[in-house]
Design brief:
By secondary structure, this protein is an alpha/beta fold. It is built from 9 helices and 11 strands.
Length: about 300
Amino acid sequence: MDRYVTAGVDGSAESLAAAQWAAREARRRNTALRVVHAWRWHPHPASSVPADSGERAVAEHVLSEAVAAVRAAHRGLRIEDRLVSGAPVSALVSAAESSEVLVLGSRGLGRVVGFVVGSVSQRVVAHSPCPVVLVRAGETPAAEDLPAPHGIAPDEPPETPRRDIVLGLDIEHPCDELIEFAFVTAREYGAPLQVVHALRPAPPRAARGEPCPGPELLAAQERAVIAALRPWRAKFPEVSVSETVSEKRAAGVLVHAARTASLVVVGRKESTSHLGSVTHALLHHAACPVAVVPHG
């Protein structure tokens, strides 16, 4: 069976950035790229559809334009295009079934860095059987690299240091699919992996005047994170790993870490379509692409 990285496109700047990101991911994974566009016939087409052209013709143009842009930037990459007549959510979830990764665009919040997750993207993320990466417009290969050291030209160093891959880890429910995705991605990027675990807040305890978790609990959590990662460090010795355990809320810690990361990785339980407050916060406010990995 062929292996794919799939990009869903709709003609927006965000989806074109997603297609380019997906092409780079396909090269890293040594897979083919599949570009999908879904369209539906409407008895009363939108005003954006030219009077002398049908909706299918417009859809074909959207797909061919996205594929042409990717081909121009990634010569030699095997690219397949797929035009699907039907609901976008169903088409993308179906495409995800035969994909290693599904990549979608997400609209930025104007001058405020972040995402506005549309109903299609949100429902696809909630139901996709494979990891979904959301990419905002303006994402470029340079965003995956750290700035060149002061006084040195960007093309002078033999290797450009890469921005961290950030993994949001809940040690109470560690899952292999999530951790493996983060380690594999860090290896493919040649990037350090930063693992972030945040202690769960306990408002009732504080409200009763009882002492908040002290350094002993923090140290115990740090040991638990190290223990959870030990077999993965052994499996991926080439990946440089750092751990951060914070007493702050997970959403805020991960959004902050995303400012200097190339990708943030979080999980979603396959048994529910609920994304959770941490994932929602990241999808709306992260400054870099966000990968949501389904797990058992």
